[in-house]
Automatic annotation (TrEMBL):
Keywords: Cell membrane, G-protein coupled receptor, Membrane, Olfaction, Receptor, Sensory transduction, Transducer, Transmembrane, Transmembrane helix. Putative odorant or sperm cell receptor. Pfam families: 7tm_4. One of its GO terms (molecular function) is olfactory receptor activity. Gene3D superfamilies: Rhodopsin 7-helix transmembrane proteins. This is Olfactory receptor. The gene is LOC104990375. Residues 39-285 form the G-protein coupled receptors family 1 profile domain. The chain crosses the membrane at residues 26-45, 57-80, 100-118, 139-162, 191-223, 235-257, 269-287. InterPro entries: GPCR_Rhodpsn (IPR000276), GPCR_Rhodpsn_7TM (IPR017452), Olfact_rcpt (IPR000725), Olfactory_Receptors (IPR050427). Its main location: membrane. It is found in: Cell membrane; Membrane. It is a multi-pass membrane protein. It comes from Bison bison bison. GO terms for cellular component: plasma membrane.
Amino acid sequence: MAKTHNVTEFIFLGLSSNPEVQKVCFVMFLLLYTATVLGHFLIVLTVRSSRTLGSPMYFFLSYLSFVEICYASTTVPRLISDLLAERKAISLWGCMSQVFFIHFFGGIEMFLLTVMAYDRYVAICKPLSYTTIMSRQACALLVGAAWVGGFVHSLAQILLIFHLPFCGPNVIDHYFCDVLPLLKLACSDTVLIGLLIIANGGTLSVISFVVLLASYVVILLHLRTRSSAGRRKALSTCGAHVTVVTLFFGPCIFIYLRPSTTLSVDKTVAIFYTVITPLLNPVIYSLRNAEVKKAMRRLWVRAIKLEER
């Protein structure tokens, strides 16, 4: 079938039609988004300005925080503005752009978390070869590979969706454009497209999640030979990583590893992985990492001294 786009814009139903609920949500999500951006920006600034955070783990963490800012910014600002709008409309091209960037930055985060797990595996299981394996050049290549992987994943998703004809209706029961809500609006058979989306998004999430968990199991088994102090430090770092991995991959697997249907709980789950998880990541990494907390305190002291001058 030839591609037909009679629809030129989509209308979001949003989170609620109740004006009072919308006002409460506006204030709440504005505060959460501000905290998310400031938290991740603080991590990036701390890592970049601290000499003690020069290891590959913090190099990857700074890039992860930057990607989290971009990832949250693809959906949350639009959600906030729509909460005060009477008509929540987005153009066809705007919708496709949102789908692309959600999966682009989400894919990068997925691959960066895998890279960070590999970094911890090398640091704990092969400490003598760590500086050789995780050289600055190798770290840059791994980050570049994560960006390329995110682009390929997102390009595949957008090509699958953009190929579909949209000839009406144009109402999306969600607060942002994503592949599954758009499949419901396509005026053609989407069974094959739905399976390809599962293969690209859901299966990739499951494989990455299993690989990550397996790597941390290997690390935990290796820690049995370490001293108690070494075990505590490694467990603290790995514990933070596992928490972030679970918070990120859990909702993704729930949404994308199932037939192309939408459920009433999808918007709640989407809030979790577009708003809550990006907010929690800076808290998890900073509160569970003594070196990051010390570097943040030093940065704060330097800022106060500069202001006093």
